[in-house]
Amino acid sequence: MVEKRADARRNQATLLSAAAAAFVEAGVNVPVRDIAARAGVGVGTIYRHFPTRADLIVAVYHHQIEACAEAGPALLAAAETPHAALAEWIGLFVDFLVTKHGLAGAFHSDDAAFQKLHSYFLDRLLPVCADLLKAAADAGEIRPDVGALELMRGVGNLCIGDGDDPRYNARRMVGFLIMGLHT
Amino acid sequence: MVEKRADARRNQATLLSAAAAAFVEAGVNVPVRDIAARAGVGVGTIYRHFPTRADLIVAVYHHQIEACAEAGPALLAAAETPHAALAEWIGLFVDFLVTKHGLAGAFHSDDAAFQKLHSYFLDRLLPVCADLLKAAADAGEIRPDVGALELMRGVGNLCIGDGDDPRYNARRMVGFLIMGLHT
DNA sequence: CCAACATACGGAACGGTGTTCCGTTTACCA
DNA sequence: TGGTAAACGGAACACCGTTCCGTATGTTGG
């Protein structure tokens, strides 16, 4: 196992751009064939590089997820109170989700193909969220029995469908939820 | 508009039972062919009686939705405070949603086929919810700017995936959301 | 530079699902 | 009981995810 072939590396990069563009235009559930056509490759090439849709999504949004994860400690240090830091960090997470059409829905799908997406989000963001929650709980600002997983799932769920109907605003609802955590 | 043929009426009833059973066993997204097979009819017969899946879902759950709608005023009269009535009524709504695998997801799908489902829920339940909200707001228990539609969408969203993961409890999250409405 | 080998590619093919359409059957009524 | 309109069944089509294998191509040792 040495280096990958040059055309393979090129195709992988092409696919990432094509997928990113397709996700923006048609949502993360855009047909595989559309992505392949955009990239000018066959569908087999997609599956070779990204066995599941989750792999592709993770690859496309990797940087943004990292940025979100890394922002946690910084917010905690900078904010007035741990609860404010929590609220701001959740805001970042919501911003990320609502700008990706359909991602919030995919995130919570029980489809086995999305298991990897689920795991990646949780591995990377759950500890950050848990730290923020703990800090807020230790400061006595929120009830101490709130789990990071249930909070992130709840927030993710609230983001589903944001933008489909101007009368529904996910940020507002998430704000109410965070308010509801107060002691 | 005359009378429908006897076999048509019979098939419609058979389909309703078959669909109800199929929904329980395999969720509201069970394949059309499975429902047809259960009922012992062809797929054409389903589409003739229920042009969209939403029509079938509405027909199956009509009584439960009515019961939920009618419970609103009763709860308002019986509860200690309007806020408590609101919480209890939302509890009924959540109970309804989480016991129907996949219904919460379908409810908020942007698929055009589910438009009818959306409308029906909203037509029937939105006024009830609005009354409860207004009572609570008039009593000064909650902020006055909460819309019935955004609340119901938020609550519906929080119900998605309940039961898939024992660590996520929709009722708990909805409870936090309702708490967050307090002034 | 050139085989020859491993790697990667393309897209046909398959299975599953929603939806339509039309030849056939059946209920109703005169 | 025969004729008609309503209703039925399921084949057929479209779309999508996924697999698979014959073909093409980059790599490398000679």
Provide a short characterization of the protein structure.
Chain A has helices at residues 6-26, 32-39, 43-49, 53-78, 82-98, 103-107, 115-138, 148-159, 170-179. With 183 residues, chain A is an all-alpha fold.
Describe this structure in words.
The structure is a homodimer of 183-residue chains. With 183 residues, the first copy, chain A, is an all-alpha fold. Helices cover 71% and strands 0% of the residues of chain A. Chain A is built from nine helices and no strands. Chain A has helices spanning 6-26, 32-39, 43-49, 53-78, 82-98, 103-107, 115-138, 148-159, 170-179. The longest helix of chain A has 26 residues, at 53-78. The radius of gyration of chain A is 18 Å and the shape is elongated. The N and C termini of chain A lie far apart (56 Å). The model of chain A has no long low-confidence stretch (mean pLDDT 95). Chain A binds a DNA duplex (30 and 30 nucleotides) through helix 1, helix 2 and helix 3.
- Report the count of strand segments of chain A: 0
Strand content of chain A: under 5%
Share of helical residues of chain A: over 70%
The most extensive contact between chains is: A-B, 29 and 29 residues
User: Mean of the pLDDT scores of chain A?
Assistant: 95
Q: How many H/I helical runs of chain A? A: 9
Structural class of the secondary elements of chain A? mainly alpha
Rounded radius of gyration of chain A (Å): 18 Å
Please mark out the parts of chain A with pLDDT under 50 across 5 or more consecutive residues, or reply none: none
Sheet having the most strands of chain A: none
The helix/strand order of chain A is HHHHHHHHH
Multimerization state? homodimer
What characteristic shape of chain A results from the CA principal axes? elongated
Q: Termini of chain A, distance in Å? A: 56 Å
